[in-house]
Write a structure and sequence with these properties.
This protein is 75% helix and 0% strand. The protein is mainly α and 160 residues long. The protein folds into 2 domains: 1-34; 37-159, Up-down Bundle (Four Helix Bundle (Hemerythrin (Met), subunit A)).
């Protein structure tokens, strides 16, 4: 009985493999038809822009972390005692920390968008809008290489 189950299982696996291959081929054909790929030369330029921007932001992020998160209350206030005598001093220090953490959050989000753009280059869908599947203008890609939307879709999203 166990042998029959194993044989039946092998047969279904053998039948499933060609189906999976056929589905993958069909998906690739649809993607190729729907997406007009950018030339490899341009993709290299955009990839270099993205990597350069990623390195710059990574350095900024590490600087923010070093200056904000690794400083004590005493270092931030400049007091010798570590306790602030005035509420305004404490509020100012808290504001600086909150502001720096907000900047770090924004930079982290930008790093995520850059990584997504690099993944789209790898997948071969970079340069197409993720909402309407139209090509993103080259001017927009040069200005904002991590963008995922064409200008029309971006405007529509901002209007909401």
């Amino acid at each position: 009985m166990a042998k029959q189950k194993k044989v039946a299982k092998r047969k279904t696996l053998k039948r499933a493999r060609p189906v999976k291959k056929a589905v993958k081929k069909a998906v690739k054909k649809v993607v190729k038809k729907a997406v007009k790929k950018l030339p490899a030369k341009e993709l290299k330029i955009y990839k270099a822009l993205l990597i350069k921007e990623r390195e710059k932001i990574g350095g900024d992020l590490s600087f923010i972390a070093k200056e904000t998160l690794n400083r004590s209350q005493r270092d931030a206030s400049g007091d010798l005692s570590g306790y602030s005598y005035h509420m305004a001093d404490s509020a100012s220090d808290n504001y600086d920390v909150e502001f720096s953490l907000g900047r770090a959050t924004d930079e982290q989000k930008l790093l995520y968008r850059i990584d997504e753009a690099l993944r789209r280059i790898k997948d071969g869908i970079y340069g197409t809008c993720l909402q309407c599947d139209k090509a993103i203008s080259r001017k927009r890609l040069h200005a904002i290489p991590h963008t995922s939307l064409c200008i029309e879709c971006q405007k529509a999203n901002e209007a909401k």
